[in-house]
Amino acid sequence: MRRSELNHAKQRTADIFNQVGIRLTEEEASNIEIAWFGLNDLEKQGLELVTYVNSDRYCAKELVLFPRQTCPEHLHPPVGADPGKQETFRCRAGKVWLYVEGEATANIQAIVPEGSEPYYTVFHEIELNPGEQYTINPGIKHWFQGGPEGAVISEFSSTSRDENDIFTDPGIERMPTITED
Amino acid sequence: MRRSELNHAKQRTADIFNQVGIRLTEEEASNIEIAWFGLNDLEKQGLELVTYVNSDRYCAKELVLFPRQTCPEHLHPPVGADPGKQETFRCRAGKVWLYVEGEATANIQAIVPEGSEPYYTVFHEIELNPGEQYTINPGIKHWFQGGPEGAVISEFSSTSRDENDIFTDPGIERMPTITED
Ligand SMILES: [Zn+2]
Ligand SMILES: [Zn+2]
C-alpha cells in the first residue's frame, strides 16, 4: 500500500475514535497501525489498531473495523513456553460479527470477502453489540467483520506476537512493505 | 456498609459509565463492585469497578473514582509462581493522580484522606488525563485519587487476585461484610 493511503486510513481511524469518545495521546494517534495484510484491498480485508500495552504478561489494544471490513481468518499458535494468545473482544461501538470453530451458523450475517472464499473455513457466529464480549482460546481459528456502520472493539489478551499468527490465506503477509509516494 | 448504600453507589457508577459512553450489559451493571475496604467512608476511600475478564493469564477492569475519592495505598505481592500483579492504568475520562514509590513530589495535588495519614507513604506523583496511562510493576506500593470531577480508568493487568493485596492500613478489609437493611 502507498504511504498516502495509509495516512488517509490513519486519519479516518483517529476520527472514529474521536467520535466514540475514545481519547488517544498525539503519539498514539500518529502510531495508529493499518493492517492490510498485503492484500491491497484495505476496505474489504484489513484492520486498524492502537496497541496500548504489550508486556510479557498481557496486552491491550483498541481496534477499528470500517463498515463491512473483515479481519481475515487466523489462529494464534503456541510460541515457546507460551500456549498461544488468548484474546477477549469487547465491542465498544457499532457491531461486530465474530466467527470461530464450532457448529456453522445456518445463515451468517457477514459477507465473505469475494475472491477469498477458500480462506474462510469457520462459521460459528457470535454477534457482539456495544458492551458485549467474547473470549477466544489459543489455537482456535477465527475471523471477524464490522457491521454496516463498522465497529470499535477493545481487545484484552495475553502477550501479543502478531508475527507468529497463522492465516488461512497463504497470500497474507502480516507485515508487508509500504510504498513511498 | 448497608445494602441500600451499596445499591445507591452502584446506580451512581452505572450513570457515570453511561455519561462517558462506556456500555455495559445489564448483568455487568448489576454486578458493579463497590470496594469500601471496610472503612465505612466510601466517598473518601473507596473504588467502584467492573471486571470484564479475569483469566489465568490476563485481566481487564473498568474503574470509577468519585470526585476526590481515593483508592488506598497497597501493593500486589507474588502469589505462588506468579510474580505479582502488573497493572496498566489508562485514564478514559476525568483526571486521576497516581502515587508510586520513588522521589516524593514536592506539592502533591491529591489530598491525603484525613485521619489516614499514617497509611499513605509513597508520594511520587503521576497525573493522568484522558488518553494517558501508566504501568505499575509488581510489588510497588501505590494509591490513587480522582480529580475534582472524578475519573474513569481502564485497568489492563496480569491475573487479578484482589484477596492477596497488601494494604498499608492494617484496618482495611478488602472483602468486608454487607449489612442487610
Ligand atoms: Zn486473533
Ligand atoms: Zn493496584
How is this structure best described in words?
- The structure is a homodimer of 181-residue chains.
- The first copy, chain A, is mainly β.
- Chain A has a single domain (3-167), classed as Jelly Rolls.
- Helix content of chain A is 12%, strand content 36%.
- In chain A, strands 1, 2, 3, 4, 5, 6, 7, 8 and 9 form a nine-stranded antiparallel sheet that branches.
- In chain A, a hairpin with a 4-residue loop joins β2 and β3.
- The A-B interface holds A 20-25, 28, 52-53, 55, 57-60, 86, 88, 90, 92-93, 130-133, 135, 154, 156-158 and B 20-25, 28, 52-53, 55, 57-60, 86, 88, 90, 92-93, 130-133, 135, 154, 156-158.
- The complex binds zinc ion (ZN) (2 copies).
- One zinc ion binds at residues 74, 76, 87, 142 of chain A.
